[in-house]
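Task: sequence in, structure out. Protein: 4-deoxy-L-threo-5-hexosulose-uronate ketol-isomerase.
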Amino acid sequence: MALHHSTRHAIHPADFKGYDTAQLREHFLIEDLFQKDSIQLTYTLFDRLIIGGVQPVTGPVRLDSFPTLRSENFLDRREIGIINISADSTITVDGEEIALKNKEALYIGKGVREVLFHPAANGADTRFYFNSAPAHHTYPTRKVQLSEAETVELGSLETSNARTIRKVLINSVVETCQLQMGITELKTGSVWNTMPAHTHDRRMEAYFYFELPQDQSVCHFMGEPQETRHLWVQNQQAIISPPWSIHSGAGTSNYTFIWGMAGENLDYNDMDKVATPDLK
Ligand SMILES: O=C[C@H](O)[C@@H](O)CC(=O)C(=O)O
Ligand SMILES: [Zn+2]
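Result:
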């Protein structure tokens, strides 16, 4: 079993201002989330969120602990939200097999000892994306289907931001300690996510871009609203967004992304919106 991990430190916005392209990418872009038969994860010091990808191919991949956690099992002091971004597959949680279709989510609470990710039965490409945050209470493990998500339609084709936001792991649907996760799908011809942009000083956020057609990219904007920078993001890459940063992107086509948050509250609507003409 292979688990590759790295740590990203929390960055002060005054430092961020001086970063060049390479530094921005080193600190905020996660390029390599999927490797055959392994877990690739990034431990960020922003709210200690773990951002990871799993690609089981020849057999099940186990969610093992790793030295940074200093815990026997990965979930001894954590909760995790997992979304299947590929073929229908299964995850075993302490011996119980749970089937997950494409875009279905699984919340697993603190204290579970063994999580196994299985390759799809028909040999199809299997990939899971996950976020994990520290937890101090055990909430039950629960699968959430897309139809159970709190769904809102936002934006319009005229402003190139017509999109469907599915709040999947949200406190009206499932109980969690810190985690919130959802899937936002851009309509054909729409390219802007999260515009008007916002910050939420009480929570950090991670964006994972996928379903981006070949040869297309997303230009992701981050930074304090009056001091923004951009990063070019490719399919199946993620961005770490500090609490002080906007997080908004424009694609060269439409695409889908998974957002995940951890921090001070579970109030999705706790956002400080920035009027678009005020961005700099
Ligand atoms: O804090 C919430 C997150 O940034 C996302 O839910 C926003 C989003 O999906 C969108 O507007 O496209
Ligand atoms: Zn946000």
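The longest strand covers residues 203-210.
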